[in-house]
User: Which sequence fits this backbone?
DNA sequence: GATTAGTCTACTAATTTTATAGGATTAACT
DNA sequence: AGTTAATCCTATAAAATTAGTAGACTAATC
């Protein structure tokens, strides 16, 4: 399951994507609207900034905004940054690869293929879920 | 990522599936062969037994064995028992459903569809991975 | 230079995961 | 009946991860 941090991150980003191009949005506003503990959100947004998803501006009129267009930010990136690997086994992870200690021999690991297939399917779906697509869906649902 | 408990469970079950029909296998043997801490494995096998995947026999000559044929035991069941929900969000889980606190309105939740699709694809792949299929793969790889 | 808003470091609390210890129970064999 | 070999059960502990908080610092604007 996704961590709260990750879910908070996704919701905050969708919120920011809705306001893309309208200047910085303050942490407090996002926290209030999305019901996220402010201090926790602060740390999360900082991580997203260091992960090159968000930019920030300090001082009056400052806040956070997307570093790229919404269609260029998808959920794989967000999840990797705030939740870790997408694969269910370390030995089939693209970005967080580690050999399984409990695997006697990796190449012939019985369960590897299954989880490799799952990873590929999951990545496919997640990479189609970019912020632009999510915002579009949201607007449609609100009607 | 899957917990160690879950990975241990899967490896133990594949081991037992290989020996299906040859009488009970002792915890100690499985622990040694699969490099699993014995006491931890004990607890895991007990859970699998309570989950109606394994049967056990006490006393001398006792041990664990599959409660059903290998083709009738698939990874969805094993993962749910030893790792929890397969879905990435509680609100799209079949067996562990909970509404998301952080969702303002569930029906129109922006990200729900994405994770519903992932759950369905994952379930499909996992349910095809039954113990019989995994053992077959293993035998083929060993050649 | 006062105000406003993000930045950074460091901590704490709660929860979950990964075990381990030790005795109770059951079955088989002599 | 007694010994041995195995699982069953309860309780606990250590380690890791997650969730959240506090407070001083820095930069931008007016």
Assistant:
């Amino acid at each position: 399951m996704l961590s709260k941090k990750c879910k908070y991150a996704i919701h905050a980003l969708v919120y920011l994507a809705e306001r893309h191009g309208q200047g910085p949005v303050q942490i407090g506003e996002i926290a209030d609207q999305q019901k996220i503990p402010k201090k926790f959100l602060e740390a999360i947004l900082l991580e997203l900034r260091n992960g090159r998803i968000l930019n920030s501006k300090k001082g009056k009129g400052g806040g956070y905004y997307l570093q790229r267009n919404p269609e260029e930010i998808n959920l794989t990136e967000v999840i990797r940054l705030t939740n870790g690997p997408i694969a269910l086994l370390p030995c089939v992870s693209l970005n967080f690869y580690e050999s399984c200690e409990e695997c006697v021999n990796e190449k012939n690991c019985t369960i590897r293929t299954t989880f490799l297939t799952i990873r590929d399917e999951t990545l496919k779906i997640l990479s189609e879920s970019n912020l632009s697509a999510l915002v579009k869906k949201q607007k449609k649902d609100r009607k």
Notes: The mean pLDDT of chain A is 94. Residues 88 and 115 of chain A are 7 Å apart (CA to CA).
